[in-house]
Amino acid sequence: MVTLSVTQGDIATAEVDAIVVNLFEGVTTPGGGTGAVDRALDGGISGVIADGEISGKQGEIVMLHTLGKLPAKRVLVVGLGKSARLDAGVVRDVSGVTARYLQRVGAKRAATIAHGAGIGGLDAAASGQAIGEGTVLGLYAFKRYRTRKEGEPEKVLEELTIVEQDASRVAPLEAGLKRARILAGGVVLARELVNEPANVMNPARMAEVAAEVARETGLELTVLGREDMIEREMGAILAVTAGSANEPKLIVLEHKGDPEHPDNNIALVGKGITFDSGGISIKPSARMWEMKGDMSGGASVIGAMKAIAALGPKINVFGVVPAVENMPSGTAQRPGDIIRAMNGVTIEVDNTDAEGRLVLADAISWIKAERGAKRIVDVATLTGAIVVALGHVATGVMGTSQQMVDAVLAASKATGEKMWQLPMFEEYKRQNRSDYADIKNTGGRPAGSITAAFFIAEFTDGVEWAHLDIAGTFMAERNRGHVVKGATGVPTRTLVQLVEDLAAQA
Ligand code: BES
Ligand code: MN
Ligand code: ZN
After folding, report:
1. Which ligand is closest in space to the CA of residue 441?
2. What letter would DSSP give residue 72?
3. Closest-lying ligand to the alpha carbon of 288?
4. Ligand 1 within 6 A of 294 CB?
5. Residue 430: helix, strand or coil by DSSP?
């Protein structure tokens, strides 16, 4: 991972491969650090502005060669957009784009000014955090299985230093970077789990990764296998796993942040379908490979738990991941089967491809019964319908506790991971009625994300519950800002923020 640091001084004198300064949209005579570098370059930056090579729009970059006028060989001027629109999200995204640019031109060591910390209206800690997160996340790449050709040197940005003139800003910038390392570390772990193919990242492997996290952090780990699930009559998880040769695992990581108050707790429950073929209700083959990412909810929970352990909020947190593969075979469940979930509710399996809600049902019942969870937020790549509703821009939020939903939305505002609430009007609920069992696992095409939420709600009696449908946001088609093509790691940062917010409220 790129090394992030802060030093006090003058960016113009930094002895690095490249220095990074910025420009707000519409500014023609740069001030601050950018102004100082402009003067050292005898007006080189004003020149490229006057020539119209950069206008300061968000994400624009021009590179100037310093030709001996500065110790650094290159200067990057990056656009921050309109100054009134600047926030941590802009700095995070710009930092991601900048980091990839620096790496592409072969810079190993770079220095940057603290975007937005002066005239931009961000405090220094927020600026440092956004720069750190954007840099680490923007550089992330999943290259484990790519053999590099001989004589093809790998370009790696190894170091980024924030050079700050004002000595009083150094400590908060460093604090921001520290948070960034922790949060980005959680997101990177989530992305790694999601990008791994399903032949590697099966339920047992997910449990191993959780065990590594537990070893590194001191989180407590419990893993249930098939026999445990049979003993506890977890008929819903067992039905989904019935067609798979890979043993299911119910993974539980615990952060005991407030042991004196066991009820001050929250469970983060993440769907962990390590591959979703659809089962007997098999999916079409086009893009079926994406279903290696059907454990993204679980991955974000494991990533968040790692960060939570490092941050140590005063609240008890359960990270719960039902890790199961959904496969067709002679032993698989069939459409029309009637199963009994752990809490006794009988379910008509209308479609074996609606498996996420089944594994979540038993995971939720388990964490309520065995650990007394009082609040639950589940995260799942649950429905194609959410992609129709919100596209690849926003995660869908639903829930029976408006307080929990509001807490999630507030956390999402703080992290910039966009979310939007869908209504749980009682009228939708009847779509889940079954002629043969207490409930069926599909509610038809209309409002498919909401009926899926209503299914889960059958298992959340007595707890404050919100549900995040990330089927539209777990993967990105291309690089944009701090997001890179492939797994996004959404909503890891929001889960951590939520837990910290709840800890602060208590
Ligand atoms: N994992 C899928 C949902 C999904 C779709 C995730 C696209 C990511 C991208 C889920 O298990 C599923 O198959 N849902 C079905 C439910 C239907 C059968 C009621 C769907 O949305 O089509
Ligand atoms: Mn499915
Ligand atoms: Zn699924």
Report:
1. 1
2. S
3. 1
4. yes
5. helix
For ligand 1, is residue 475 a contact (CB within 6 Å)? no
Rounded Cα gap, residues 99 and 101, in angstroms: 5
Residue 149: its pLDDT value, please? 85
Return all residues near 285 (Cβ < 8 A) that are at least 6 apart. none
Across all residues in the chain, what is the average pLDDT?
98
Instruction: Map 232-295 to HEC letters.
Output: CCCHHHHHHHCCCCCCCEEEEEEEECCCCCCCCEEEEEECEEEEECCCCCCCCCCCHHHHHHCC
Distance 205 CA to ligand 2 centre (A): 21
What radius of gyration do the chain's Cα atoms show? 24
In the chain, the domains with their CATH numbers are 3-165 (3.40.220.10), 184-505 (3.40.630.10)
Burial of 50 (0-12, 13-18, 19+ CB in 10 A): exposed
335, burial (CB in 10 Å: exposed 0-12, middle 13-18, buried 19+): middle
* Residue 480 annotated among the catalytic residues of the structure: no
| Whole-number Å distance between alpha carbons of 421 and 402 | 10
Contact 277, 283 (CB under 8 A): yes
- The answer to whether 6 and 173 have CB atoms below 8 angstroms apart is yes
Q: In this structure, what DSSP letter does residue 431 have?
A: G
Q: Is 449 in the pocket of ligand 1 (CB under 6 A)?
A: no
The helix or strand, by DSSP H or E, that contains position 59, with its residue range, turns out to be: none
Q: Which of 382, 428, 468 to mutate to test the pocket of ligand 1 (most atoms within 8 A of CB)?
A: 382
* 3-class state of residue 60 by DSSP: coil
Residue 108 has a pLDDT of: 98
Q: Is the pLDDT of residue 195 over 90?
A: yes
Q: Judge if pTM exceeds 0.85.
A: yes
Gap from CA of 383 to ligand 2 centroid (Å): 8
Contact 100, 479 (CB under 8 A): yes
The residues whose Cβ lies within 5 A of ligand 2, an ion, are 276, 353, 355
Farthest-apart Cα atoms in the chain, separation: 81
pLDDT of residue 147: 92
Does the beta carbon of 383 sit less than 6 angstroms from any atom of ligand 1? Answer: yes
Q: Are 361 and 229 in contact (CB under 8 A)?
A: no
Does 381 sit in the ligand 1 pocket, CB within 6 Å?
Answer: yes
| Ligand 1 atom at shortest distance from the alpha carbon of 276 | 1
